[in-house]
Amino acid sequence: MKKIALAGGCFWGVDEFFSRKEGVLYTKSGYSNGQVENPTYEQVCSGTTGHAETVYIEYDENQITLKEILEKFFKVIDPTSLNRQGNDKGTQYRTGIYYIEEGDKEIAEEFIRMKAPKYDKPIVVEVEPMRNFFDAEEYHQDYLKKNPRGYCHIDLSID
Fold first, then answer.
1. Ranges for the Peptide methionine sulphoxide reductase MsrA domain (predicted)?
2. Is the pTM of this model over 0.85?
3. Of 6, 10, 44, 108, which residue is the catalytic one?
4. CA distance 26 to 94
5. Which of 33, 38, 50, 93 has the least CB density, counted as fewest CB within 10 Å?
6. What integer is the mean pLDDT of 102-112?
């Protein structure tokens, strides 16, 4: 089983999107790469903690590769938008690929290099080690399963 963490704006949609993909075994919404221990949603939304809304993903690489996950990720985010996805604005909504295994850094960086010529603006997706990850509050977990009409900035029907 492999692990990666992706920040792509509001974590509700990213979590739901990846939970539906074959080979993805587990997803969890949380806050990563900030400076505050165990931040609350309100603290993260204040923009003062440095955290990004992030989805932690465990997947079976025999069913789906990291490159395939990143292809799907780039279909539902705007990788050229800094600190904004959909209607959500702020540093907590930045895009990022936070790797857990060092070898995934090269895969992510190469993926971005290959994608860059397809965009008119620079890709601003962070590629960094996952320095920390704190679970979001329970009401954020599987939010769109619990609230099917809840806000989502991405098209969940995309494969």
1. 3-153
2. yes
3. 10
4. 22
5. 38
6. 98
